[in-house]
Amino acid sequence: METVTTLADLRLAVDELRGGGATLALVPTMGALHEGHLTLMHEAAKHADHVIASIFVNPRQFGPNEDLDAYPRQMAEDSAKLAAEGVALLWAPTVEAMYPQGYATNISVAGVSGGLCGGNRPGHFDGVATVVCKLFNQVRPDMAFFGEKDWQQLAVIRRMARDLDLVLPRVEAIHGVPTVREADGLAMSSRNVYLSPAQREQARAIPESLATAKAMLGEGKAWAEIRAAAEAVLLGNGFASVDYFDLRDADSLELLASDNGKARLFAAARIGGTRLIDNVAVT
Ligand code: PAF
Predict the structure, then answer these.
(1) pLDDT value, residue 16
(2) Quick one: pLDDT at residue 158?
(3) Cis omega (within 30 of 0) on the bond before 169?
(4) Which helix (H) or strand (E) holds 154?
(5) Residues recognised as catalytic
(6) How many angstroms does the Cα of residue 279 sit away from the middle of ligand 1?
(7) CATH architecture of the domain with range 2-177
(8) What is the whole-number distance in angstroms between the Cα of residue 83 and the centre of ligand 1?
């Protein structure tokens, strides 16, 4: 696997990989790779001739009091995992290469960026949309792969691709890959490493709260009762606070009070200093 850190080297490497018309898949990441990321690489390899991964801890998507400095960085380990997965090229730009002196452009996607994580993390999705648009323009992949654990992020990226008429990847070629879970149901996340053993044990309350809500929806219970029961599962199992527990339309992300046939449940809650998110389809 080749690793490139400058745009000039990336362009040369991408041209070489494209060779006689080979197709390219991009899997953007912030590193600290776990089984969920490797599943994205694996899915990408099923669809394209070559997989390109990027690792870039994007400062623009972290708020002033968030974990930018603490965010796990383990380039050597990540690089070995990607090579073992058969990834052809790793794009690992520095902050200066991504945002050179004088950088001034921001992409803001209205609507789907509001509420959920957008409500708790102002500016977060501007940072995501901006860096993903740049990554798309830098690599010009035929397709791209993202985890469904960050469902709202996927909605923001698809909206941006539609609104900006992105040619590569076309919006239809932006794939969401189902969340990979630990044995007890906890969604895999790079932030799970922040959890103490006791917190890790309690963190299973996130998927449990979603399962409780899903079962109650199936029983036809009222949404207020469902939300209260789900929050009780979280707060009764060591979570300090619940940022949101919502039922929303899977595409528009509009709030719902009952299943509309394409509803999803979304949860974000804090345990110790760590904020965990998850979501599931209702049907
Ligand atoms: O999901 C992530 O790891 C990041 O938000 C992404 C898409 C790589 C953009 O920095």
Answers:
(1) 98
(2) 98
(3) yes
(4) helix 151-163
(5) 37
(6) 17
(7) 3-Layer(aba) Sandwich (3.40)
(8) 20
Nearest Cα residue to atom 3 of ligand 1:
29
Candidates 58, 136, 145: which one to mutate for ligand 1, based on the most atoms within 8 Å of Cβ?
A: 58
Find out whether 150 and 127 touch, Cβ atoms under 8 Å.
Answer: no
* Residues 186, 204 contacting (CB under 8 angstroms): yes
CA of 128 to the centre of ligand 1 (A): 6
Q: Which atom of ligand 1 is nearest to the CA of 132?
A: 9
**Distance of alpha carbon 36 from alpha carbon 186, whole angstroms:** 12
The CATH class of the 190-278 domain is alpha beta
Strand ranges, E, within the chain: 2-4, 24-29, 50-55, 89-91, 143-147, 174-177, 241-249, 263-271, 274-281
pLDDT of residue 48: 98
Query: What are the residue ranges of CATH 3.40.50.620 in the chain?
Result: 2-177
Q: So what's the pLDDT on residue 1? A: 98
Domain with CATH 3.30.1300.10 in the chain: 190-278
**Per-residue confidence (pLDDT) for residue 235, from 0 to 100:** 98
Token readout for 278 is: 């998850």
C-alpha–C-alpha distance, residues 32 and 168, integer Å: 27
Q: Over the stretch 124-151, which tens digit does the pLDDT of each residue have?
A: 999 999 999 999 999 999 999 999 999 9
With a cut of 70, which residues of the chain have pLDDT below it?
Answer: none
At 45, list the tokens: 């390899």
132 C-beta closer than 6 A to ligand 1: yes
- In this prediction, residue 50 carries a pLDDT of 98
What is the value of pTM for the model shown? 0.97
